Structures
1.
Amino acid sequence: MLSRSNETQVRALIDQWKQAVIARDIERIVSHYADDIISFDAVGALQFKGKAAYRAHWEACMQVCPGAGIFEFEQLRVVAGEELAFAHWLAHCGGTDAQGVTKACWMRVTVAYQCRDGQWQVVHEHWSAPFDMLTGTTRFDLQP
Amino acid sequence: MLSRSNETQVRALIDQWKQAVIARDIERIVSHYADDIISFDAVGALQFKGKAAYRAHWEACMQVCPGAGIFEFEQLRVVAGEELAFAHWLAHCGGTDAQGVTKACWMRVTVAYQCRDGQWQVVHEHWSAPFDMLTGTTRFDLQP
């Protein structure tokens, strides 16, 4: 059976996680992740295996990226069962660089949750942007 | 409770779906999809909403792509509950062009399943390749 109350819990966790990213609080960001998370991030590597590896990637990204000036979610869908849940949405991500130029793009996000010992944890995350099949260039221009 | 028997069912479906792609059999490929699938494919658009839209995208891709000479899955993880399941893996995709040059790259795949009326259906799919944060170029060179 699908569970509305679990869906509500997962939606709250996604909002808390989003606020942690906006606050650039790595401790709070990674507190949502299971120790054995396998993450497919949009940049850096094919995958990050385990919370420690993914935390190090977050730290590297925070060094490179400007402040999370734009970090908005749209078209969020959450489906929750008794012990598993998944969510996907579109994320508008960007910021303003040192020259005052704002750059932003739309990304796709998929997250899988598992409830372990009564606690929902992110066991898998997948972020990406589509690419152009002919040129191999990332399509930062696409709009929802 | 997680379900080993559901995991076994989902693994069999993934294998059947893979064989359908290798056979370039669009009817069999899309037979795995729920009518309300929302797909984040690696190319073409941010998302495809519904089986009909995603089917049209598959048809367009089959026109552009050479035969699925290389379509191998690695590091498959399947987690299945009573009514939801998810899977993720790395896919080696490529083929040989008209000049006899073989081109292949590694992609990341995430799929979410829901059991409806006793039938497991794909309700969400996410394919991607990472990009280089500085150049915006897709990283077709990454190896597992």
Note: The longest helix of chain B spans residues 4-22.
2.
Amino acid sequence: MVTLIDGKTTAETIKAELTAEISSFTERKPGLAVIIVGDDPASHYYVNSKQKACTTVGINSFKSELAHDITKAELIEVIQSYNNDDKVDGILLQLPLPASLSADTQEIIDAISATKDVDGLTTTNLGKLLSKSKDAIEPCTPKGCMELLKRYQIEIQGKKAIVIGRSTLVGKPIALLLNNANATVVMAHSKTKNLDKEIKNADIVIAAIGKAEFIKGSLIKEGAVVIDVGINAIEVDGKRKLVGDIEFAEAQNQAEFITPVPGGVGPMTVAMLLKNTLELYQKRKSLAAR
Amino acid sequence: MVTLIDGKTTAETIKAELTAEISSFTERKPGLAVIIVGDDPASHYYVNSKQKACTTVGINSFKSELAHDITKAELIEVIQSYNNDDKVDGILLQLPLPASLSADTQEIIDAISATKDVDGLTTTNLGKLLSKSKDAIEPCTPKGCMELLKRYQIEIQGKKAIVIGRSTLVGKPIALLLNNANATVVMAHSKTKNLDKEIKNADIVIAAIGKAEFIKGSLIKEGAVVIDVGINAIEVDGKRKLVGDIEFAEAQNQAEFITPVPGGVGPMTVAMLLKNTLELYQKRKSLAAR
């Protein structure tokens, strides 16, 4: 019998935990600044859900909506003013940036102060992830995947895991986190030969490629754990539908645990954003108390 | 027929290339500062070979030999004075540090200016490696492995590679570089189950664990490429002998290409140190010219 990994309920549980913790803060509340550039509807939708989630748990949120043709220098100035703003514990730059800025994405992210890097995507923090520093902030989506495995008490040590997709934002950090948790990780990608065989051999399959139902569900090994990071919009009978990178209908017949799309990793990304905001808040507080 | 990957000769070729290039510099020559703490004979031997190699190619080298009980603060002060020294383009902290400092290794490495990080081991540089930044300095031993594959025209794209060992200094950076070169990489380690099977499936085997002949040569797939990073001293009939992490005698019957130990990766590490020093020199020069 397959167990559905319910990211939505898990995220609600985490939010309840955070709410309880934050409600006990008598002084200032944690603060998250969100920066969004341009008018991509999906990005605005995500940013709004993130702000709404902040409100729910008692985190103040601040938003800068910037014109799509803002210059790099202007954008970095906005980031820096949040760096210097004591009300702000975490700074989130909503990605992707518009085409005119996208080549400079990493440089712009690196303008975020290491102490406010809520998404864990600055170069310094990625380095900390690689060197397994205790000080590292785990990027939200990878952390959300790990938290799901943890809350469903899925053993990782010694397991063979495959991560399909090698982006700096998702694939590579997940591979490192799984490696740190003592899985044997295969990093697969578009140039991988025999991808089918690699998937068939994996106890844990993590898909982060962004291609609708790209991975055949029949490839999943019986009893495997499937975490689908992809959220892709397709049309079925003229209606818009969200699907993952893996054929869910088939995969659920093979897997022991599987995340649905939507309602799997997606809500966890937001929950981990809140959790990271709280972590940064507490770090700043303990630094200030020294 | 197996081809021996001759790291010694390849390193000599690279040194000749560097010598030719550096001899054309009419102003100042590149400079490398080497810092060694304590009196470990092997470390002193390595540092001396590195300085000798510098002299050969026309790089100035400076050495600080520090007492084993130096404090972290004092050591960082030495690093900082090299950071501020215009004659110095690269700073190498010989590892491992003595036991009293080893827990702070990464923090001490991070005192090296990013512009002089010749070993590519600062947190910032490791992050750049992960985000595939063009600006990254590739750590010397991983870069040496990649250079051997390149100079022997061994195709990497689409190949299945296994990296055994996941240290921050060697294993993880090699895995990232192979991934960047479009191999499908398995990151294996002491908690890996079925390691034998994983090795048997690999087209490229990279061993970086530091255990004498830990990997049975018979596990190597026929026609595979074997890169042995390990250098371990053992005793045979009362005589000291250096061996790798892989049983060479057996492995050479299976492999298409194989590195010997010694004379494989070892000399390449030094050659890449020289190459990185030159790269940093040229970067500083072009920055100064702006």
Note: The interface with chain B takes residues 106, 122-133, 157-160, 166, 168, 172, 175-176, 179, 182, 184-189, 191-194, 198 of chain A (CB under 8 Å).
